[in-house]
Structure formats: structure tokens, C-alpha cells
Amino acid sequence: MSSSLKSKIEITYLKILTWLLIAIILLSIAVIALIRLCKKKILKNKPASHLLYSIVNYRKDPFDDFVPSEVEYLTVVNEDIETPPNNFSLEKKSPKKDHVKENKNNTRKIRAPQICFQFNYDIRKNELEVYLIRGINLPKYVNQNIVVSLMLSNNSSVYYSNYVGGPDPNFKQRFRFPLESTRISEDPPLRVKFNIWTVDLYSKKSPYGYVSVSLEEIFVTYGLTPTQDKGIVRKDVIQSTNLVDDHNSAEVYIHTTYLASAQRFSVVLSQAKNLNIDPFNKEIQGRVTLIHLHSERKTYSTDLLQAKKHVNFNEEFVFQLTDLDIQTTEGIDFKIEILCRIKKTFSKPIVIGNFFIGTSISCGRFGNEHWKAMMSSNSTISRWHQLNPN
Questions:
Q1: Which of 149, 187, 348, 387 keeps 20 to 30 A from 193, CA to CA?
Q2: What is the average per-residue pLDDT within 7-13?
Q3: Closest C-alpha to 196, from 181, 211, 174, 175
Q4: In the structure, what pLDDT confidence band is assigned to residue 45 with cuts at 50, 70 and 90?
Q5: Residue 236: beta bridge partners?
Q6: Within its chain, how far is the Cα of 156 from the centroid?
Q7: Greater pLDDT, 276 or 350
Q8: Do the two domains 114-239 and 251-389 of this chain adopt the same fold?
Q9: In CATH, what number does 114-239 get?
Q10: How far apart, in whole angstroms, are the C-alpha atoms of residue 337 and residue 340?
Q11: Measured in whole angstroms, how far is the alpha carbon of residue 231 from the centre of its chain?
């Protein structure tokens, strides 16, 4: 073999080896890039928050049914919260199923927000007591507290709890509503509503959610006077951004009694709320008048008090029919008025509003119902009445 041919063969081998080496290097670079790309996609699809689910809370609470030795997972109730889908799942280990809210579109699990309360009914006083005990897993924000407003349907009263910090506020407050036993099974059923609000440093309320329960249903389940251990009710909070405490009309709370054997009426003017008071410095006064056959027979007035939006009178007036030469209760109405006037002047009092109790048409449905309840009962009848503008 000639030297020139041998040289050409060697050059060809060198070229082949060079191209083969370049191909190996390019292939290695492609493999490394592919591996890195796969790692990025895996990390992107894997939820970072899954590492937080190893943190569990072993709390025990006197009003809590959760078993402290077990892990309790609950799904988020608020449908407005959106979380990315993931491929892992959590197993519920607690035997308590009534505290679990399933959400197919959301696998992030926390304890459901709840309100704990108790109802007691005092038959002697015709009074419903609502014992607001505590909240569970309510919102906790910086410089904000939780406040709960309570309302009873067909009753104008609105009560507010103290401002308490979240997420598990302890209220332990009692609120009382006048309620006759015959109204517990009314149709439609009476309901108690709890509105839950967050309150900032400037006392601005923001709606969070509510709980609404049937009074009759709770009493059937727990009894009128349940024991503390068996009577505690726990209800999930329905989250809502549209809450209204709509009982803002001017109203007066009175107690009335009729003693047939003595032919005597007793009227206690207890308090007035949401009064429309001018910014001037004025005094306020309550007035109760007995009307017989459209004629005013006897009038009593309370002491003059400083005019405020909410006023406590707490004064009793007794009307003896024999002293008024009235032989029968037929044709009797009571007129209750709230008046105000400029302080320390002799100007004529201005009537803010009034309402009537009795059998005449002017008394309206609520005035007629109050009269019938009083005349058919030996006990005191206590009710709120809306004040009609004069």
C-alpha cells in the first residue's frame, strides 16, 4: 500500500472520530437539558403547600367534641376561596362526621367555622334566654375583633355581643327576649339569627357570616331548660357578605297586667330605643293615657330625662277602674306616647310618636294581640311596640 493511500485512510478515520465525538457531546447536552426541564415541570405541578399539612393541632376544649388524640381535618366551607388542584389527598381520621364539609373542587382542609350557644326558656317570666358561648375557627385579622348580633324573628330587639378577638372567641354572654310560650310553635316558626361581623379599630363592621336556627326545633331536641352539658348547640357558620341588622325603627318596651278581681290595670313603661332626637339639648318624657269610649280618662307621665336615642324609664302606672267609675273593660284603650321639649323652657312638648293597646281599630293588629293576651292571662305581658310618628 502506497504511502499516499495510507495517509488518506488515516485522515478519513480522524474525521469520523471527530464527528462521532461532536455527536456524543451534543447528545449529552440534550439529555441534561431534558432532565432539567422535566424537574421544573414536576416542581411546578407539585403544590408547595403540601408540606404544611404535617402540622396538626392537639387542642382540647370543654365545648369541643373533637378527640384530642386524633387529627381532625375539615374542608373549607367558603366557596369563594380558590386553590390549585393537586394529586394528593388527606385521610380523615376522626369518627366525628358532622363537622366535615365536603367540597369536591377544594381539597385544602381546615376546621369549619362554628357558633356555640344554648337556649333556656323561663315559663314564669315568659322569657327566652340565649346564652352565646363561643365561636370556633372564626376569622382572625390584625387589629380586628369579632362581634355577634342576635335577633329573634317577630321581635324588634337586636343585641350585640362584646368585641372579642378571633379565631376562637369566648363570649359567654346572656341575652333575653320577651316571648310567650304560645308563640314558640308559631307558623311560620320563630327563628333566632346570629350575624357574625369583624370590627376594625374605628368600629367599622364588615360582614362575615350568619347562623339561623328554628326555636321550636332546638327546644324539641334539647328541651326548654336543658342541662349545660346536653344543651349546647353547635352550628356551622354560613359565610355571607350581605348581612343586615334591620331592626332600626323607634320602639317602646312595656309590661302590662290586668287584675280582674281588683279591676286594676298596671302599665310599666320600661324603655325606648332608636328615637329620632334632634341635635338640640332637649328633655324626653313618656306618657300613658287610659281612654274609655273615645274619651281620655286618666293620664300619667314619667319624669323628665335627658333626651337620648335610647332611654330607660322603668316607671309603673296603676289605673283603678272603680276610681274612674268604669264598670267594664269594654271600650278601653291605652295610648302610649313619647314626647320631647327644649330643656328648662316652658315650650309645649312635641310628640315624637305613639301607639295604642286595646280593642279599637286604631290599636292595629299588634295592639289588639297585646290586649287579648293580657286579658286572657293572669301574668304580665311584655312586648316591644313600634312607635308611630305623630
A1: 387
A2: 77
A3: 211
A4: low
A5: 114
A6: 15
A7: 350
A8: yes
A9: 2.60.40.150
A10: 10
A11: 19
